[in-house]
Amino acid sequence: MRSGGKGGQNVNKVETGVRMKHLPTGITVKMTKHRTQHDNKREAMLVLKEVSRASSNSRAMPADVLLSASRSAPACVLPCLCPCAPQKLVAVLEQQRLESLEQLRGDMVEASWGMQVRNYVLHPYKMVKDVRTAFSTSAVEDFLDGNLEDCIRGLLLEKSSASST
């Protein structure tokens, strides 16, 4: 496989690029960073070792991940989220992070119109209305200052009547 970039007369004659595949995970590393095949092979092995170590610590990575580095952009040996990290590896790690966050969050309710718990009307008239319990008051200043006993009492009565039925 030929390396890309500047190379003068040797660019079309010398094949120094290396492509290696880690068979258990299916991860392929393409290295065309150096001018010698030995340096590219050594660098590709380092990247494969780090990626396989990272994938064994977390879940298995998909088989279509292709890591590559060229002479213009040096390869990042560590699978980190930095600009020099391979694009697809970053995408896989980001997807794994999002999946773990979704597991932690559980079911999330969309905050859209009509999903509110309480309505506050301050103009042209003043009123606070709790949608869950149908509690409403016109003493908005007291409610906003922390006088919530009536609202809490209504919520507790609603929950106790729902659990008794």
Protein architecture, described:
There is one protein chain. The protein contains 4 helices and 6 strands, in the order E-E-H-E-H-E-E-E-H-H. The chain is elongated. The protein is 38% helix and 16% strand. Strands 1-2-3 form a 3-stranded mixed β-sheet. It has a 3-stranded antiparallel β-sheet with strand order 4-5-6, covered by helices on one side. It starts with 17 loop residues before the first strand and ends with a helix. It has 165 residues and is of the alpha+beta class.
Which regions have little confidence, pLDDT < 50, spanning 5+ residues?
A: 60-84
Based on Cα principal axes, name the global outline: elongated
Arithmetic mean of pLDDT: 76
Strand tally, please? 6
Biggest sheet layout:
3 strands, mixed
CA radius of gyration is: 30 Å
Q: If strands are numbered along the chain, what order do they take across the biggest sheet?
A: 1-2-3
Percent in helix? 25-40%
Question: Structural class of the secondary elements?
Answer: alpha+beta
Q: Outline of this structure?
A:
With 165 residues, the protein is an alpha+beta fold. Helices cover 38% and strands 16% of the residues.
What descriptive keywords fit this protein?
alpha+beta, 3-stranded antiparallel sheet, 165 residues, 6 strands, 4 helices, elongated, single chain, 3-stranded mixed sheet, 16% strand
